Amino acid sequence: MALIENAKSAGTGPQVSRVDATAADSLSVTVSEEYQVAQARQVCRTLALKLGFSRSDVCCIETSVSELATNLLSHTRQGGILFFREIKVPSPGIEITSFDEGPGIDDISLAMRDGYSTNGGLGCGLPGVKRLMDDFEIRSQKGTATVIVAVKRKRCR
Ligand SMILES: Nc1ncnc2c1ncn2[C@@H]1O[C@H](COP(=O)(O)OP(=O)(O)O)[C@@H](O)[C@H]1O
Ligand SMILES: [Mg+2]
Asked: How far apart are CA 4 and CA 99, in angstroms?
C-alpha cells in the first residue's frame, strides 16, 4: 500500500498548505467540515485554471473534487484530506488524491456501481468521478484507510 503510506507521510498540516514530503508541490485541503468542500473546490479550481484547463474541463475537475470531498464527510467520521498537484508525465494534467483513515471500502466494484450507496445517497459520486476524469484508481484497506487518485489530462488543441 505505497499509495496509502505516501499519503500518510504527506501529513495533515494546516487546512490549506503546501505539502513537500512525498507529493512535491501538492496543495492540500483538510475536509472535516462542510465549508471545506467549497474551499477544496476553490483551491483546485484556481490550480486548474492556472494550468490552462478549458472551462468545461475545470467544471469536470471541480465536480469531482466536490464528490470526493462530500464522501469524506458522509462516509468517514473524521473526514480526510485532498491533495492537488500538477503532473507532467506521461502527459500534462492535474491529479486529485483523496486520503482518509476511515472505515475503508469493503467491495470496491460494488462501490463503483451506479446507484450503490451504503447510506441512502444517490450512489453516483464515485462512478461519476470516474467518468469525468481520465484516470481513476481506488485503494482501500478495511478499517485502515482509503486512497482515491483521479487524473484529468490536458487535451491537445
Ligand atoms: N472515503 C470513503 N470511505 C469509505 N467508504 C466510501 C468512501 N467514499 C465512498 N465510499 C463508499 O462508496 C459508496 C459509493 O459512493 P458514492 O458513489 O459517492 O455514493 P454515495 O456517496 O451517494 O453513497 C458509498 O455509499 C460508500 O459506501
Ligand atoms: Mg458520494
From this structure: 8
